[in-house]
Amino acid sequence: MSEKKLHEDQKYIDGLLKNNSFIIQAIYDKFVPKVINYIKQNSGDGDKAQDVIQDTLITIYNQASENKLQLTCPFDAYFFILCKRKWLNELKKNSNKEVTINEEVLSKDDEAQELAFETAVFGEKQVLFTEMFQKLGTACKDLLTATFKIKSMEEVAKSLGVTYAYARKKKSLCIGKLTELVQKSPKFNQLNN
Amino acid sequence: MEDQNYILFESYLSKELPQDEIIAFESRLKNESDFNQAFNTYKELASFLEHKFENEAASTAFQNNLKTISKTHFEKQKPAKKVGHFKLWKYAVAASIALLIGIFTFNDSPNPTFSDYNNYEAISLTVRGGQDELLKAAEDAFNNKNFITAEIIFGQLLAKDNSNKELQLYRGIALLEIDKFDEADSLFSRLSNTQSVYKSKAIWYSALSKLKQKDFAACLEILKTIPKYAEDYKEAQNLINKLE
């Protein structure tokens, strides 16, 4: 991936990451109308389109800030495929029917397709991880929250009234517990294959 | 997977293993697929958690800003309501009502309102280094008039460094914007009792807070304490004239 040339549309990714209102506005002006049309033509409406677009942009933002998203294709294609995929999944969820992604778009821009796929998997993993984190016991949730918010393990131990060694050990066991929950979920195996 | 392995993952990721153990660890990664899979999931989860909590404030600020832009965009899309057959006489009635309102308002000479004074210049906080991301998020939220978000982030920043008077002032303004008057007033009054460059600004804003609460007498009283050298002195005199 690193050898591929960065597309000039990376500016949209960087703008989202910096919470730049002008860039967000530009995305809505330039790329969103096409998505709204598509959703409206495929059993959706304006409100549904608004949600799909918002969720998609949040996923892109999250991936960019955690994984340093490098755009190697036009933003337009990448964003459209992502929104479309999300909308089709939404339809599938509500109708219990198998919905497949249009082949025409699949072959149109492989690079965009590949990148959009990575982002979509990232987004679905985030949802799954958040869900599993909620399943942890309160002690683990509190410890992990403190660990990643405070950063210094010494301070975490102090704030929880335990020793440094104990806090450290507990941290690895809690992430371990989360690892097990995630690995056991069928959704995770689907996403990883 | 055994507990011991998770402890090992953590030590490896935080680079605390001695060289010989690193070699042994990496060879297990190559040869034991369960071990490898568990490690990769562990690593992914650690990165997820780190990001989730570290960027909470910036992420909330982004989402709020996005929602505002999205809402405006989609409201523009909705077709305007049809005017229908609006007969001429209705225009006449509307015009007379407008005229009456105009006369009443003119005679009444309305009191000045808070919204005449809340045009803030864009603030810039990110030159100091350090907690850059959070500061940037606060700055963006404030400049985009997302005062709910701004107030939350200022609160978080002040939890780390409660002595920063500039942040205290901005937090006060954000509180004032979202009508949390008690908190705003007590912040401004604390600030106006300190010897800092923000002293007279704080007095000015505590007057504006009274104005927003329509307590004109209290507003006047505070305005009169703004010293001549203060940046807002002229504006304050103006407001005094309108109120008296």
UniProtKB/TrEMBL annotation, chain A:
Residues 28-95 form the RNA polymerase sigma-70 region domain. InterPro entries: RNA_pol_sigma-70_dom, RNA_pol_sigma70_r2, RNA_pol_sigma_r2. This is Sigma-70 family RNA polymerase sigma factor. It comes from Flavivirga aquimarina.
Automatic annotation (TrEMBL), chain B:
This is Tetratricopeptide repeat protein.
